[in-house]
Amino acid sequence: MTGPVQSIERAAAILRLLAGGPRRLGLGEVAASLGLAKGTAHGILRTLQHVDFVEQDPATGKYQLGAALLHLGTSYLDVNELRSRSINWADALAARSGESVRLGTPLEGKVLVVHHVFRPDDTFQTLDVGSLLPLHASSLGKVLLAYGTAPLEPALEPGLEAYTRHTLVERSRLSRALAEIRERGWADEVQEMSMGEAGIAAPIRGHGGLVVGAIGLSGQLERVCDSQGHPRSSLINLLREAARAISRDLGASRW
Amino acid sequence: MVARYVMSIDQGTNSTRCILFDHHGRLASVAQREHQQHFPRPGWVEHDAVEIWRNLQRIVPETLSGAGVGAEDIAAIGLANQRETTVLWDRATGAPLGRAIVWQDTRTEPLVTALRSDPGDEFFLARCGLPPSTYFSALRLGWLFDQVDGLRRRAENGEVLCGTMESWLIWNMTGGPDGGLHITDATNASRTMLMNIRTLTWDEELLAFFGVPRPMLPEIRSSAEHYGTARSLLPGVRITAALGDQQAALFGQTCFSPGEAKCTYGTGSFLLLNTGSDLVRSRHGLLSTVAYKIGEQPPVYALEGSIAVTGSLVQWFRDRLGLISSAPEIETLARTVEDNGGCYIVPAFSGLFAPHWRSDARGVMVGLTSYITKGHLARAVLEATGWQTREVVDAMNADSSVPLKQLKVDGGMTADNLLMQFVADVLDVPVVRPMVAETVSLGAAYAAGLAAGYWPDLEVLRRNWHRAAQWIPDMDPARREAEYENWKRAVERSLGWVKPPRPP
């Protein structure tokens, strides 16, 4: 095992120093307090500023803790911003796949639907932005669980609701499914929420690769899945392409 | 081999975009490049027409390589453009005479004031359907004739050409100084104040009034017909459509029947209602304009209501007040409260446009009490866009025989669910968003593809339109009326704030 990463130790020290008092500190003060070269301290401060953990006063150039650090436990990406940044890609996914598309983020043990694009067949459909889906029985929810965006422990409690006979309600089966999702990079849900319907979903990543939400499509079983009951690879490709495009837009570099 | 795509060029206020669309009207490839905004003096806004032409020369190949295709795969080219922006250029060299004067430019304000009192709005309305405003091209030409020595003489000799951006780009694409086509379409020409709105030809009386020599003007053509063949950029590909951007959005939203309307929600917002072959003269402050003209068919007209400040109010809330850090967060903030708390914002930052047309109005925020939080202000910001839409729709319903049954929407603000629900609530009609957000580009592509036979008829285009979202009205009628009354009282308080200058 390798030793501690020095720059992360130093970054932590800078955060502790800034948290220590109400006063903003200049670059010189930070460097002197921690015995760092000014250039080193500046590099770390700029990186912390980039991830919004530190803010610099535009007038004086002094540093303080950033707002993002204060809300570390809650989602850092506004859900309305997520919708706004995804809307063109979600539209394209619905147009190409022929199925309805939803975006989800976690909310109090459920999936909050933050965006919904109708299936492009002009039948009557109702916008369900703001509605909640179960984490363990939806493809969006399984993505959020698999990547730690939604806390896992409550979801593994006994007594999960069985919506159909296919719903994963046992801890071991759900855990295995989540590991598989992490392995292949997308989730499926085949008749787990209602019979005759299926869905697939993929993670949306922000800065540093952190998963901030999920995008998925869903529809009738025979359209989403092949005759063996596996999701069609053409749909999976379209979905992952859309998820990657949104992630790139949000600043995730590798995906 | 059958051509696979139609190319659309959208020469907009901030950028130029090039998009390829397939037979289903789906976006296949896109490239975009922004151009510089020049603000030489307060109220002046200019673009460098050469920069825009160079941008187009870069993005066309980018778009082709994005889809992995060549010129032979393109069935036709259609253009949409920022309306009213005017450029002059030398016929022999192709060099512009100064920068293009942009539609937002208010340098002709004193001239507008003078014309509205003498000869008065009616003289213009009867001929071109427009009252004098700083938007329209004729006033800019008048200003240029006064400022540039010898311009009128050179224009009379045919040495200088003028046009809106589509004229400039088509001229350059079809050969430039070496026989380039100098044309415009009826929708763009309908925004110059020089075209007769009934005959769709340059109006002799208006030309005489503004002193515009006929030889400098482009030929007015249909919005969709075979204009000519490109000689540069995409040699051999037919150019078959041109429309002003708002008309292109109406076309892209497939509002082909009388009574169908769309609203594009951007910095400002533009609501256009198809009035069919009837030219409706508004008695309620709307503009009569050409919606489109397909080939030899009779023109289709539209009523237009422009709202100056909608998205820009959210930007102001973000940049000037600093209450949010990104525009979409306005919805998050607005949802922290149940209602507006009695607060209303009338964003008459530079007067009120349709249907009031009051340049003496300025913005007001009313109903403030110690109860009001920033959440209520965020609500009031969004509701201002809803009520301004309602005022324009009321004016349209009063002017037109067919009342609005649903509103098709596009533009960036349609991502805001709270706002779209509010628009449906206050209009009391369903609001629908199409699956292709790029309605301006799509409209230009549709018109071009139609003229080139890529699509057979309007019905096929209609079938390409799909609903991506729909908001159904869900507001108690009594509450709607009470809130509208409050909004109207707020508007009254914004009027007459700017006093006329005292006589010396």
Automatic annotation (TrEMBL), chain A:
GO BP terms, alphabetized: glycerol metabolic process; negative regulation of DNA-templated transcription
Residue spans crossing the bilayer: none
N-terminal signal peptide: none
SMART domains documented for this protein: HTH_ICLR (SM00346)
The HTH iclR-type domain, residue ranges: 5-67
Keywords noted in UniProt: Activator, DNA-binding, Glycerol metabolism, Transcription, Transcription regulation
Pfam family, one: IclR_C
GO MF, one annotated term: DNA-binding transcription factor activity
Highest taxon, organism lineage: Bacteria
Domain IclR-ED: 68-252
Gene3D superfamilies on file: 3.30.450.40, Winged helix-like DNA-binding domain superfamily/Winged helix DNA-binding domain
Function: May be an activator protein for the gylABX operon.
Protein name per Swiss-Prot or TrEMBL: Glycerol operon regulatory protein
Provenance organism: Streptomyces griseoruber
TrEMBL record, chain B:
Record key words, sorted: ATP-binding, Glycerol metabolism, Kinase, Nucleotide-binding, Transferase
Catalysed reactions, semicolon-separated: glycerol + ATP = sn-glycerol 3-phosphate + ADP + H(+)
CDD domains, alphabetized: ASKHA_NBD_FGGY_GK
Regulation: Inhibited by fructose 1,6-bisphosphate (FBP).
Annotated sn-glycerol 3-phosphate binding sites: T13, R83, E84, Y135, D245
Pathway listed: Polyol metabolism; glycerol degradation via glycerol kinase pathway; sn-glycerol 3-phosphate from glycerol: step 1/1
Ranges of residues in domain Carbohydrate kinase FGGY N-terminal: 5-252
One MF term in the entry's GO annotations: glycerol kinase activity
UniProt binding sites for ADP: T13, R17, T267, G311, G412
InterPro entries named in the record: ATPase_NBD, Carb_kinase_FGGY, Carb_kinase_FGGY_CS, FGGY_C, FGGY_N, Glycerol_kin
Amino acids binding glycerol: R83, E84, Y135, D245, Q246
Keyword Ligase: no
GO cellular component: cytosol
GO BP term, example: glycerol catabolic process
Residues bound to ATP: T13, S15, T267, G311, Q315, G412
Limits of the Carbohydrate kinase FGGY C-terminal domain: 261-452
Entry's EC annotation: 2.7.1.30
Function: Key enzyme in the regulation of glycerol uptake and metabolism. Catalyzes the phosphorylation of glycerol to yield sn-glycerol 3-phosphate.
HAMAP family assigned: Glycerol_kin (MF_00186)
Family, per entry: Belongs to the FGGY kinase family.
Protein name in the entry: Glycerol kinase
Species assigned in the record: Streptomyces griseoruber
